[in-house]
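Re: the 268-residue chain
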Amino acid sequence: MPVIAPFISIGPYTFNAFTFFTSLAILLTGGWIIWRAPQKRGHYFDALIVGLATGIFIARLVHIALNWSYFAYHTDELLRLDRGGLDWHGAVVGAWLGIRLVRHWRPIAQEHLWNKLAIGAILLSVSAWTGCYATGCAYGAEVSSLADYPAWLVWEAQDIFGIFAPRYNVQVLGIGASIVALACMTLVAWRGWLQQRRIWLAIAMIAGIHFILGFLRGDYALEVLGLRAEQWLDIGFITMCVWQIVKPVKRHRADNLSAPYPSPDKLY
C-alpha cells in the first residue's frame, strides 16, 4: 500500500499529492533555468509561463479527446482541472508551441532552454508517477494472486473507486524507471553529449516508460488495434524523437541569439 498520503498539508494549506509533486518539479525546473540565465531572466520567465499555460491547455484537450465517451455525458467536468486529467503528450506539444511562440518576440538561447528542459521533463516524470502512487491514478491491472508474481512487480492497492486488490505495481515501476532515466540524462548533461538533442532523448525515454507500463495498467483507456490509444501516441513520439536525434544538426541564425550567454556546452 502507498506510504504517501493522497493529500499533503503544509501549515494551514492542504494540497492534492499529485498537484503538489508536479508543481514542485515545475518550480524547481523553472527556477533552475532562470537562475542559469541571469542576463535575460525575464525572457525565460515569459517563455516558461506561456509554455506552462499552453501545455496545460493542450494536455487537457488531448485527455478529453481520448476519454470523450465519458465527457460526452459529463460536459460539466470539461474544465474541472481539480478532478485531474492531463495527457502528457498534449503537455509536451503545448509547451513546445508556447515556447516557440514567445521566442518570436522575446529572444532566448534555445540550446540553454531545451537542454535544461530535458532534465526538467524527466524530473516531472518522477514527480507525476510519485503523485499517482499517492493518489491511485494510472493504477495497475488486477492479478490473480500476489504469490504468483515477483514481489517487486505486484502489490495490493486501490483503484479510483477505492477497491483494494492485488495489482501490478505500475506507479512504483514508473518512479523507478523515471529515476533511472533521470540518472542517464544527468550523465548525458555532465558529459556534454547531445547538444540541442537532449530534449528528444528525454521525451523518448518518457514515452518508452509509458509504452511498456501501458501493458500493465488497469485504468480505462480507449483501445485501438490491441493497444491503448496513448501507446500509439508513445510510438509516434518515440519515432519522432529518434529521427530528431539521428538527423544532422542544423544551426539556425535564431539560435545564435545566445551570444550574451555562456557557451551552451558549459550549461549542464
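The mean pLDDT is 88.
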